[in-house]
Amino acid sequence: MSIHINAKKGDVAETILLPGDPLRAKWIAETYFENPVCFNEVRGMLGFTGTYNGKKISAMGTGMGVPSISIYAHELITEFGVKNLIRVGSAGSYQANVKLRDIVLAMAASSTSGVNELRFGGADFAPTANFELFQKAVDVAKSKNISIKAGNVMTSDEFYADEFESYKKWSQFGVLCVEMETAGLYTVAAKHKVNALSILTISDSLVTGEKTSSKERETTFDEMIKIALELA
Ligand SMILES: O=P(O)(O)O[C@H]1O[C@H](CO)[C@@H](O)[C@H]1O
Ligand SMILES: O=c1cc[nH]c(=O)[nH]1
């Protein structure tokens, strides 16, 4: 048992799917896992382990933002031996050609979070996806005829930015979309020499103003989950 996860060693699989929303973790486990068992309820951050096609796999919420996912990733790796951390999250599009419900693989994560500036004394660290997980996700998507986009994403510390237009600078430099955890996840994984990948589904567009509902965000991003499940 760790400070934030009320589980025993062995309760968590080596591969875990990590949505921000704990109810999405419950939905993933109940929809796709065989024999799901809940291993964590501390702070309502639900975590489940079951099997998928006979392979042990887990899903757990991370909460929102770099500090929250960094706590859970740290404990999952150091206390429970997790080796493959796959974020399955929603994101807002920064580009006209990145449309609602498109899937984006985060090759790297730019960030407005101050965590790495602090950690590296003002120098830049480039948080990147694990190459093997990334390559496998591309292959799985191809085999399932699911189209994907891949590139740099923005991990923001703000959901409600004071200057809405500030996203355009990142957009000009090719950043595909915005979410709030990937840079933290990739950094913690790099520190502990384990593997991480973020698979994101576009839930809204800063370019067009279109949005999906919170119910849809909780339950309908199944193509992204179908890719993630094959990475165990
Ligand atoms: O859908 P999730 O995984 O929570 O991800 C996105 O949604 C939340 C904001 O609504 C942030 O956590 C952001 O990263
Ligand atoms: O962090 C997020 C997630 C979805 N959409 C946004 O605009 N921001």
TrEMBL record:
Keyword Transmembrane carried by entry: no
Nucleoside phosphorylase domain sequence ranges: 16-223
Catalyses which reaction(s): uridine + phosphate = alpha-D-ribose 1-phosphate + uracil
A GO CC term assigned to this protein in UniProt: cytosol
Transmembrane segments: none
Superkingdom classification of source: Bacteria
One Pfam family here: PNP_UDP_1
A Gene Ontology molecular function term of the record: purine-nucleoside phosphorylase activity
Keyword annotations of the record: Glycosyltransferase, Transferase
Cleaved signal peptide residues: none
EC class: transferase
InterPro entries the record matches: DeoD-type (IPR004402), Nucleoside_phosphorylase_CS (IPR018016), Nucleoside_phosphorylase_d (IPR000845), Nucleoside_phosphorylase_sf (IPR035994)
E.C. code: 2.4.2.3
GO biological process, one term: purine nucleoside catabolic process
HAMAP family listed in its UniProt record: Pur_nucleosid_phosp (MF_01627)
Family: Belongs to the PNP/UDP phosphorylase family.
The protein, known as: Uridine phosphorylase
Originating organism: Planktosalinus lacus
Lineage: Bacteria, Pseudomonadati, Bacteroidota, Flavobacteriia, Flavobacteriales
